[in-house]
UniProtKB/TrEMBL annotation:
It comes from Azospirillum thermophilum. The lineage of its organism: Bacteria, Pseudomonadati, Pseudomonadota, Alphaproteobacteria, Rhodospirillales. Pfam families: HAD_2. Keywords: Plasmid. One of its GO terms (cellular component) is cytosol. This is Haloacid dehalogenase. One of its GO terms (biological process) is DNA repair. GO terms for molecular function: phosphoglycolate phosphatase activity.
């Protein structure tokens, strides 16, 4: 009898890679282009994972939708220009490669659900030699943003995995709430962009503090 399929669905920014400085730099450039001064780096960090226009709207609540969209477009252009110049720095967090290998060795499928665009995600995966290791890629330009459950639901549809055999791994409350809305288990990681207390309050089933420990937490939830 074939064993049931299982899925580990990872966030990208703040979970797999540390992209905060490149994100803050691009947001700062977008602010400058529109004469808005400088954004608060801590507030920018807290918005990582949301759809871009929504994140800009939360950072600039006094401005209108048209301005939010224009600033978001400036951000995308600034980030793309930085990547073209080879200035984007998105290193993998320590232990992540070990976790991906351990999950694959245990027969768990790997996927991604991210607020990144598909172009940005493809660049990250190619840069780290990870292209092809994830069987489903859900991005902000194809799905409603977190914490809406659509990314999880679409990943389940593409892989044929049951929600009871799926775990979301992320660093923000948006990831944990997305998992709850989709009725799947979740692992919060402490090295990302939201405090552990917030991840716990959002309902994370496990909290891990080292990249290599993610696989153990995921397998524990799947086997439980």
């Amino acid at each position: 009898m074939t064993a049931p399929l299982r899925l580990a669905l990872f966030d990208c920014d703040g979970t797999l890679v540390d992209s905060q400085f490149s994100i803050i730099d691009a947001m700062t450039a977008a602010w400058a282009e529109h004469g808005l001064g400088e954004p608060d780096p801590l507030e920018v960090r807290r918005m990582v994972g949301l759809p871009l226009v929504e994140a800009v709207a939360l950072l600039l609540p006094a401005l209108d939708r048209g301005t939010h969209e224009a600033v978001a477009e400036s951000y995308k252009q600034a980030f793309a220009a930085s990547r073209a110049r080879g200035e984007v720095d998105e290193p993998l967090f320590p232990g992540i490669l070990d976790t991906l290998t351990a999950l694959e060795d245990a027969g768990v499928l790997l996927g991604i659900a991210t607020g990144k665009s598909r172009r940005g995600l493809d660049a990250v995966l190619k840069g780290h030699g990870l292209t092809g290791r994830f069987v489903t890629l859900q991005t902000s330009d194809a799905c409603p943003g977190k914490p809406h459950p659509h990314m999880v639901q679409r990943a389940l549809g593409e892989t044929g995995v049951d929600g009871a055999r799926t775990v979301v791994i992320g660093d923000t409350t948006y990831d944990i709430l997305m998992a709850r809305n989709a009725r799947v288990a979740s692992v919060g990681v402490s090295w990302g962009y939201h405090p552990v207390a917030d991840l716990e309050a959002a309902g994370a089933d496990r909290i891990v503090h080292r990249g290599r420990d993610v696989a153990t937490a995921v397998l524990d939830l799947l086997e439980g």
